[in-house]
Amino acid sequence: MAKKKAGIFDPWRQERAEPVAKTEPLHVDAYTTDSVSSDPSQPIRFAGHRGGVTVWVPSGPTELMAKQAQTNLLAALLHLMANRKLYTIFNKWGLRNDRGSDFEREPWTVMHDGTRTVVVRGDYARALDAVTFALREASRTDVKVEPYLLSLGVRPYIV
Length: 159
Fold this sequence. Notes:
Layout: H1 11-15, E1 29-30, E2 41-47, E3 51-58, H2 62-81, H3 84-92, E4 95-96, E5 108-112, E6 117-121, H4 124-141, H5 145-152, E7 154-158
């Protein structure tokens, strides 16, 4: 048998952090931007198994950048879930803005920043996959979604 060759090198796949349990504080990866670029923002990445979300926020202390990125992501999700045309997409992927009656029977991930709360079905990695695919499907359904997400610095990616 011939030995299988390695595929295309993907630095995102190689450097992905382990998913964070619900009880641990949120772990984000902060990368510095290129020094040639005049944009003083940095990406904060929330990674799942098959995809994730990168949120570009202004440079600053890592803790503040992480809080701002989480706030931007939750604000985008809640704004898009309020749209009747897009609500069915988010509901299909298991995203809610409250805990349902089946909250105790299934594992759920609660994402909150103190004022905004989004509840997603599954553990942390599966929840971020659901968020990623829901944002991707919403962008394909409504042409106004992608510019809105870009204005908040939210960019979903698929591995």
